[in-house]
Amino acid sequence: MNMNNTAPLHPHHPHPKFSIITVTYNAGGVLEDTIQSVITQTYKNVEYIIVDGGSKDRTLDIVQRYRDHITTFISEPDRGLYDAMNKGIRLATGDYLCFLNAGDELHEDDTLQLMVHSIPSDTLPDVLYGETAIVDEEGHFLRMRRHAAPEQLTWKSFQSGMMVCHQAFFARRDRVEPYDLKYRFSADFDWCIRIMKKSRVLHNTHLTLIDYQNEGVSTRNRRASLFERFHIMCRHYGYCSTTLRHIGFVFRLLYA
User: Fold this and answer.
1) Are 143 and 136 spatial neighbours (Cβ–Cβ below 8 Å)?
2) How much is the CA Rg of the chain, to the nearest whole Å?
């Protein structure tokens, strides 16, 4: 992590509060690095929320070790990932929400500070977004994410897929809606589109924001996830437009 100090903000520059939300369940092997990437940030207007699904491993011991740095912690059974994320939304009080789940990390110690410096004066964009680095289990850089963030993101950008990683998509809390629990695998895709549809200013920070751990999507869930994503695209962009744009994809999905 970068330990360089960043120049202080001008008094009239926005000084937003970030709600960083970590959802976890039996992720004791990766949670500590995630926590450390949040609590070492040079930018301090942050609340850190951890929503645990009732872990049985050493997750609770790790959380207890850092409890003084964690604003809110709950551990209770939930109805899955997106139900837990909705709990995080209800607990958040910041200007911006970011979901940094167990295994993910903020890219550098000054990532939030640099993000805030990138915001034009006297404005709070509806969405802040940036790039994502793919790392291995030890946190070593492997490559940048396959989809680079669009220079100018709009809700129509996701017609070509999830062009910004969910973790690198910081939404203003007053634009946020709950995740739709009818989607088991791709509710984040739908969530981002819904937020962008009612957003006027989407700000490209031109920064790498997130280190995302490289992990293969299971074959069992991959097909279900793709079906969900196609359904979400049809809902937002229309069936004909989505089918024509993805006709080869649809053929592979149905007959693979």
Assistant:
1) no
2) 18
Q: Are 100 and 34 in contact (CB under 8 A)?
A: yes
Q: How far apart are CA 44 and CA 38, in angstroms?
A: 10
How many Cα atoms within 13 Å fall on the side-chain side of residue 206? 5
Q: Residue 100 in contact with residue 38, Cβ under 8 Å?
A: yes
Element holding 115 (H helix, E strand):
helix 111-118
Instruction: Give CA–CA dist 180/38, Å, rounded.
Output: 27
pLDDT at 12 > cutoff 70: no
Task: Provide the 8-state DSSP code for 104.
Answer: -
How far is Cα 255 from Cα 140, in angstroms, rounded to an integer?
37
Distance CA(97)–CA(95), nearest Å, equals 7
Q: pTM here? A: 0.88
pLDDT in tens, 77-134: 999 999 999 999 999 999 999 999 899 999 999 999 999 999 988 889 999 999 999 9
* Residue 163: partners with Cβ closer than 8 Å, 6 or more residues away: 147, 149, 150, 153, 157
Give residue 213's identity as a one-letter amino acid code: Q
Q: Name the token pair of 175.
A: 């634009």
Q: How many CB atoms lie within 10 A of CB 36?
A: 15
DSSP three-state, residue 140 = coil
Query: Is residue 218 scored above 50 in pLDDT?
Result: no
Q: Are 53 and 25 in contact (CB under 8 A)?
A: yes
pLDDT exceeds 70 at position 8: no
Residue 216, pLDDT above cutoff 50: no
